[in-house]
Amino acid sequence: MKKYLLILSVCSLHLLTVSCEKHTSPVKDGAKPELISDEFIFTEGPASDKEGNVYFTDQPNNQILKWDAKSNSISVYMKDAGRSNGMYFDDDQNLWTCADENFQLWKISPDKEVSVVLDGHENKAFNGPNDLWMDEKGGFYFTDPYYQREYWERKSPEMEKRKVYYLSPDHKTVTPVAEGFVLPNGIIGSSKDQVLYVSDVSKEKVYKYQIQDNGTLTDKELFADMGSDGMTLDNEGNLYVTGDGVVVFDKEGNKIDHIQIDKDWTGNVTFGGANEDILFITASDAVYKLPMKTHGIRWNH
Any idea of its EC number (predicted)? Predict the structure, then answer.
């Protein structure tokens, strides 16, 4: 009997250890967010290239900046950047941006040639594309909320609803794939798990969808009672949600960490660095970096 109880105790301890390990922080032991620079107005839209450099926007100053992962320095990549917001690199190192100035979706080539890929749907201007994510086929999901900008002449949207759209892999067809939002904002997905996360920042909710082969979305479910601006995922399926610092959820929706940032608002987050194991954080007028135990999934390190 004592031997049986001992086995149960050992098994219980093992299960407890597994459970604890499952919910440990993905932040590197002892690491704290390190300020890179706070010389901006409002930082947004970080996107990592295949070398680990991170491009981000200073939206009110209408410019895209580049953080060099090797030198830890920041330089101006593009001025007059269409008031770009969310950004994402495709496999050919074109930088796709949600160009908010004229409600467009841009593709910026490696030599900085700008192509307007989308500027509306069904003869109506978009509300203002905000964030985007590319699937393994090369198609793009993007959110289209409505934030009235002081630099717009229009004072109301042409579209009644705020939706999530899918741009086909050949970049010729755009289709609404989700609606029912107040302000759909952050968006991120995993082609491996065939899931897409969308934040409705006004409702303070993050929703999870299943991605189908044709690009449509099914099985909408509430994932977290938190709104978010930008979001990212790591190789363990943890979701990083922004606003009050960075909150990390595991793939089951359990909160496993809260990364404190010394700013009123954290706007966005992505993984960068040569091994994609640096969490790059945009927060109000600043950008930070944080070493991680996990890594991003964009470049399959």
Answer: 3.1.1.17
Strand 84-89 relative to strand 205-211: parallel, antiparallel, unpaired?
unpaired
pLDDT digits (tens, 9 = 90+) for 49-99: 999 999 999 999 999 999 999 999 999 999 999 999 999 999 999 999 999
- Strands 174-178 vs 163-167: parallel, antiparallel or unpaired: antiparallel
**How far is residue 247's CA from residue 157's CA, in Å, rounded to a whole number?**
32
Task: Determine the pLDDT at residue 15.
Answer: 36
How large is the average pLDDT for residues 105-109?
Answer: 98
pLDDT at 69: 97
Cβ neighbours of residue 188 closer than 8 Å, sequence gap 6 or more? 133, 196, 197, 230, 231, 232, 233, 239
Contact 164, 187 (CB under 8 A): yes
Kindly tell me if the per-residue pLDDT of 1 is higher than 60. Answer: no
| Structure tokens belonging to residue 157 | 């949207």
Asked whether the whole model's pTM tops 0.85, one would answer yes
CA distance 144 to 130: 6
In this prediction, residue 10 carries a pLDDT of 37
Give residue 100's Cα distance to chain centre.
17
Buried b (16+ CB within 10 A) or exposed e, 48-72: bbeebbbbbbbbebbbbbbbebeee
Exposure letters 242-264 (e unless 16+ CB within 10 A, then b): bbebbbbbbeeeeebbebebebe
